Amino acid sequence: MLKHPKAARSVPQSLSVAPRFGMEGVTIPRHEMPVGEMPPDVAYQIVHDELMLDGNSRLNTATFVTTWMEPQADRLMAECFDKNMIDKDEYPQTAEIESRCVHMLSRLWNAPDPRQATGCSTTGSSEAAMLGGLALKRRWQRKHARGGRPNLVMGINVQVCWEKFANYWDVEMRLVPMDGERFHLNAEEAVKLCDENTIGVVAVLGSTFDGSYEPVAEICAALDEFQARTGIDVPVHVDGASGAFVAPFVDPDLVWDFQLPRVASINTSGHKYGLVYPGVGWIIWRDAQALPEDLIFWVNYLGDDMPTFALNFSRPGAQVVAQYYNLLRLGFDGYARVHGYAREVATRLSGLIADLGPFELITRGDELPVFAVKLRDGVTNYTVFDISRALRERGWQVPAYTFPKNREDVAALRVVVRRGFTHDLADMLVEDLKRHLQHLDKQSGPVHDAANSSSFHH
Ligand SMILES: *Cc1c(COP(=O)(O)O)cnc(C)c1O
């Protein structure tokens, strides 16, 4: 039985209906489907009222996912709610729009022959990672008919989707721990873990822990050298969930994409810095050879013979349409403007926080517009968990969390700046932070730690 962790506490079995529509005192079952119908306005009000307790997404600096889109995008999405992405025959223009996005991203990431762009939309980076990982595994299996247990090399800072990939598809996860001031994968440590059963190395462009970019070009160069020495050819997959939609626009000189011949595939979340509401990701291969054909299914029962490579079948078309809207509406310059501003807000905000005194920056927001800070060693009477909890008072969600092996001693706060987070909001956050620090400073000892705080970074 699947249990949501918060479902454990016992709740009354019936829900008291809002005192509107003359329904004072009326209750409805909470966990059972009601037997009879109710008017749509009443059902709407009940659900709407219950959702008032959800947080204000614009004050959430924990999430990388889009929380604001232009009203025109909202309208387009509403017009497309009924479209099923898989019905390519029924909705040929939606399919065409998906294909245009694949071509645009393929060009943005410098695929060698963008006319033969190979890739597809997904529900997010997690599904995209599964598909990218499966292609790596299948390519390795073809070369190693005699078997052995496949492994995938990555930093311990990878997002949980890679742990899922390894678990679901029975691939050994080879993790490079953090070390000293190194909070992500580096070339030397990646190569040390590679052998003939390595299906690939995952390099993360924009670590979820601190927003830093992993050195993709250095990792590729070290793997070139490894191949020259051992004859073993290890491809690289770039997890650009955030960064693949940031770096091309604001770090044009950084070489991390298909310009590096070793980069076989790249995933991104359209719903992070692609600026679309949750529900869309992308996976692009450098060319058709990088995607083994036997992973592609041909379905014809919807009326036409269509290639599909996806874990899902039916899924919403609206998000893909909204992605196209953004690409069209903003263009290269628009994305550069939006993300340039986010970086400006992030670096200025990290500077203001550093100036408050008790903090030390781990990153400053000059790669992803995301930064992590910790408390100075001398601060012992309160924790980052206390700060996170205090900020909740006015609705700010600033996550606090501890780092993984070998830096479990580091506890940090992380701020993700995205579209809709302005200099003005940043100033209000700093003011609140100052106010809370005055109180926390008088506290005799820490109240919250990793064990008694909810961890909501993702
Ligand atoms: C968010 C994230 C993921 C998972 O992406 P979803 O689109 O939420 O499935 C994977 N990798 C990294 C680096 C991420 O930041």
TrEMBL record:
InterPro entries listed in its UniProt record: Glutamate_decarboxylase (IPR010107), PyrdxlP-dep_de-COase (IPR002129), PyrdxlP-dep_Trfase (IPR015424), PyrdxlP-dep_Trfase_major (IPR015421)
Domain of life from the UniProt record: Bacteria
A family per Pfam: Pyridoxal_deC
Cofactor(s) for this UniProt protein: pyridoxal 5'-phosphate
Keyword Lyase: yes
Keywords in alphabetical order: Decarboxylase, Lyase, Pyridoxal phosphate
Gene Ontology CC: cytosol
Chain positions found as N6-(pyridoxal phosphate)lysine: K272
GO BP of this protein: L-glutamate catabolic process
Entry keyword Lyase: yes
Catalytic activity entry: L-glutamate + H(+) = 4-aminobutanoate + CO2
GO terms for MF: aromatic-L-amino-acid decarboxylase activity; glutamate decarboxylase activity; pyridoxal phosphate binding
E.C. no: 4.1.1.15
Family classification: Belongs to the group II decarboxylase family.
Protein name: Glutamate decarboxylase
Lineage of source species: Bacteria, Bacillati, Actinomycetota, Actinomycetes, Micromonosporales
